[in-house]
Design goal:
Strand content: 15-25%
Mean pLDDT: 81
Radius of gyration: 36 Å
Distance between the termini: 64 Å
Number of strands: 21
Structural class: alpha+beta
Helix content: 40-55%
Largest sheet: 6 strands, mixed, barrel
Low-confidence stretches: 1-10
Number of helices: 24
Length: 837
């Protein structure tokens, strides 16, 4: 009602006068002894009740603050730059964390979509997917294999592209929206495909008419039925962005299982039902392991999947990142608070007069906070612009990973809410202390200048202490990167090449085996190539883990969880993986079941058994596997990981029904010189086979990604905090020199040398820097201990070397920030100072 009366404000004075006249008439009519009082005061109070007094005064304060700040463009520019950087870094890291941790897949009703794991494995055979679907436990069930590769021929050359193999009901079950065309339907033939937006833009220049046309995949024509939207997010998350989706897989292809919960079904009910289904599988479909061990139903995307172990570690890293960037914002706020504290000097007389005339301190506090609110809003706008620019740049970065990842950081309501919180915090952190100090000292002008100077020095000391904490964190991660680069992955990366080849899908098992052997012979015959080998997996470019029951020949059993690989005999020589015991594979091993394991496998699962005298049964084979060698362990996914059990089989010993194969070569010359000869050789072997050739060193980017990401993010944040601290120190020193110019001039006039003046000014800067550094190092020694969970073995957050390096950097920063004020102090003309006096 008050709002509508506000719209009719022009009638308010007339209504008020009419109301007052009515009360006067009633008082006169009844001879009331109570006087009506001051009619003007009553009318003013009435107007306040009929208007938005707080909003009007607040708006006037903002207008007044804008006019005042317009007369201080340098202060506004410095404040917006500091706050824009602080808020922008926080907004960018928050958006990145939201994308990695809470992004929802681009599907219909993502809350009812769950991932299903059978026997602790992330993937299962198609027959298992069909069994779960036929059980009726879930409303719908579909599967996908996201590790496939397809050979795409654009009419000029054939190259491998990342593909996802899906069940035919995948798109309908997920409810995936399309940019053009449609998804794959259950009654579609096998020769259809859906293209990713990025692949469509790169290969077909965004031409919508490609829908309905045929493209060459794996030597066969595939009809494009749909194009995904630009910001499509897969259920895997983490920016996974494959090129092509196809409804084609073999019976041995393993699939990730996704399901829809029935209406009203809870996760606990789904888990209980899955256990019943798994027990039925154990009875009706015996396999190499028990299906009823380790089954799991978990949410896909959003907030529900944070309980997973890998998500908890990633979440902890982003919490750390937000804490560090929050400290950077605090440094920026302290910087701006110092500027506002200096600006308040010019308003001292105005505030004193306002207080003397009866203005309330709360009202004046609101007016003084309007300055910081305007600066916070402008800084937030600049920061959000910086965050959006950063997100655009991140979307164009190609990460050194074996999987196609594309970060799709986009602003949403969560970022807007976070920005509002940051703006409020910034307003209070920047303006509350200067405003309070101005009100407190406005009636004590004699103490005003000295107290304000001391307060600015304290603020800079706090700023330096915070910078020390941020810089220590960044330096720890930089040392972690250097240390990680020095860690050996367990194989040679300096003299080796890797070729990932995707053979045509039309080839038979025998044809693939013949192709592998012919290619090995051709590669080994190249000048400069010493030897060549083939493998299913090259470390840091993928991994396969098995959870199986081992049955030893003496009747004992053990459950084993290990990394698996299948290789040709020369693999260990090419990769320079030494043998501790026994031998590698021999041609005479054909027809037998032999394996090579690593020491971690021996320690964890063999106990006191002699490895070379041990045999065991695992999988669906009835023939025992015999250990013929123990090879040194290698890193598999990250350079800082602990030794993990590993098992190698001969490549000829497995059913080689996969198209993808890895070739590794040892080169006697720099491997980069062999890249083109290897490409030509592979093309001659089969022009329809797609190949990616690179040095092994260039292919293990995944190993160093955690260290590189931590060093880049923490290092750049620490550098930003250092720059802001330098600006704050420079500001307080410049202000101090300007305030003491008369004193310095007198000192020079009575005989002080320029060096004495320089030492005096520098001593003041060192006092502030050393006190802030000491406090920061003390806090860093305590709060950086949890960083150990993110670091490679051998790196300690509380290493004295870290603290010594940070202290040295802060000392150098102090000298750099003091150079200008010191130079200005030594150039003061005493004659000019005395003349002014």
């Amino acid at each position: 009602m008050r709002f509508f009366r506000k719209l009719l404000r022009r009638r308010t004075p007339q209504d008020m006068q009419a109301e007052l006249a009515f009360h006067r008439e009633m008082a006169a009519l009844h001879d009331s002894p109570i006087p009506l009082g001051n009619a003007t005061a009553i009318a003013e109070r009435g107007y306040d009740l009929w208007s938005f007094g707080f909003l009007e005064s607040f708006w006037r304060d903002l207008v007044y603050a804008a006019r005042g700040l317009r007369r201080s463009p340098m202060l506004v520019a410095a404040a917006i730059a500091s706050l824009g950087l602080g808020i922008g870094v926080n907004a960018a890291m928050f958006s990145l964390g939201i994308e990695f941790l809470f992004s929802q897949p681009s599907v219909r009703d993502p809350g009812s979509l769950v991932g299903v794991r059978i026997a602790g494995n992330s993937h299962a055979e198609p027959r298992v997917v069909e069994f779960v679907r036929a059980s009726g436990l879930f409303a719908e069930v579909a599967g996908e294999n996201e590790e496939a590769v397809a050979n795409f021929n654009d009419g000029v050359e054939t190259r491998p592209v990342f593909a996802v193999l899906t069940t035919k009901n995948y798109f309908t079950m997920m409810g995936i929206p399309m940019l053009y065309g449609r998804g794959i339907l259950p009654d579609d033939p096998d020769d259809v495909a859906v293209l990713n937006y990025g692949f469509w833009r790169r290969q077909f220049h965004g031409d919508p008419s490609v829908v309905g046309r045929a493209i060459d995949l794996d030597g066969r024509a595939r009809t494009v039925v749909g194009i995904l939207p630009e910001h499509h997010r897969t259920p895997i998350g983490f920016g996974f962005s494959p090129d092509i989706f196809q409804p084609r897989y073999l019976p041995s292809t393993i699939l990730a299982i996704y399901a829809r919960l029935r209406p009203g079904m809870t996760l606990s009910a789904a888990r209980a039902g899955l256990l019943t289904v798994e027990r039925r599988m154990d009875a009706e479909m015996p396999g190499p392991y028990k299906y009823s061990q380790g089954g799991r139903v978990s949410p896909v995307g959003g907030y529900g999947h944070l309980r997973e172990e890998r998500m908890l570690a990633l979440g902890a890293f982003f919490v750390l990142l937000l804490a560090v960037t929050g400290l950077v914002l605090l440094i920026a706020c302290v910087n701006v608070a110092g500027l506002l504290l200096a600006r308040a000097s010019s308003r001292r007389r105005e505030i004193a007069i306002r207080l003397a005339l009866g203005a309330g301190r709360a009202r004046l506090l609101q007016q003084l906070l309007a300055d910081s609110l305007l600066l916070a809003i402008l800084g937030a706008a600049a920061g959000l612009g910086l965050a959006q620019f950063t997100a655009t740049m991140l979307a164009r970065v190609r990460l050194p990973l074996p999987l196609p990842l594309r970060l799709q950081v986009a602003p949403d309501w969560r970022l807007a809410a976070y920005a509002a919180v940051l703006t409020t915090f910034t307003m209070l952190a920047c303006g509350l202390l200067p405003a309070w100090q101005s009100l407190k000292q406005s009636l004590a002008p004699d103490l005003h200048r000295e107290t304000r100077t001391r307060l600015r020095s304290v603020l800079v000391a706090v700023q330096i202490a915070t910078s020390v904490l941020v810089l220590t964190t960044g330096f720890v991660f930089l040392r972690n990167l250097v240390h990680s680069n020095a860690i050996s992955p367990g194989f040679d990366v300096r003299h080796t090449l890797r070729a990932a080849v995707n053979m045509p899908s039309t080839s038979s098992d025998a044809a693939r085996a013949a192709y592998i052997q012919q290619t090995l012979d051709a590669l080994a015959a190249l000048p400069g190539i010493q030897t060549a080998a083939a493998a299913r997996i090259v470390p840091f470019n993928g991994a396969t883990r098995f959870l199986v029951d081992l049955s030893f020949t003496n009747g004992e059993r053990a459950q084993a969880f290990f990394y698996w690989n299948a290789v040709t005999p020369e693999f260990f020589r090419v990769m320079d993986i030494p043998l501790r015991e026994g031998r590698t594979f021999l041609p005479s091993d054909r027809g037998q079941k032999v394996v090579v394991v690593n020491p971690a496998f021996v320690r964890r699962y063999l106990g006191s058994r002699e490895p070379l005298a041990t045999s065991f049964v695992w999988g669906d084979s009835k023939t025992p596997y015999r250990i013929v060698g123990v090879a040194e362990g290698t890193k598999t996914m990250t350079i800082g990981e602990e030794p993990q059990p590993q098992l190698y089989e001969p490549l000829w010993q497995i059913k080689n029904d996969r198209q993808a194969i890895e070739f590794v070569m040892r080169s006697a010359i720099p491997p980069a010189l062999e890249l083109e000869p290897v490409r030509r050789t592979l093309h001659r072997q089969d022009p329809m086979a797609g190949a990616q050739v690179e040095t092994v060193y260039g292919s293990i980017g995944l190993a160093f990604l955690p260290s590189q990401a931590g060093a880049a993010l923490m290092g750049s944040t620490g550098l930003l905090g250092l720059v802001l601290a330098m600006v704050g120190l420079y500001g307080v020193m410049a202000y101090s020199v300007a305030r003491r110019s008369r004193e310095i001039g007198v000192r020079i006039a009575i005989g002080a040398r320029r060096g004495d003046i320089a030492r005096m000014v520098l001593r003041s800067a060192l006092r502030v820097t050393l006190s802030g550094t000491a406090a920061g190092l003390l806090v860093a020694a305590i709060v950086t201990r949890p960083l150990a969970m993110f670091l490679a073995p051998g790196i300690k957050p509380a290493d004295p070397l870290n603290f010594a390096a940070v202290a040295a950097v802060m000392l150098a920063t102090c000298l750099a920030a003091s150079f200008g004020p010191v130079w200005r102090a030594t150039r003061i003309d005493p004659i000019a100072i005395l003349r002014d006096e």
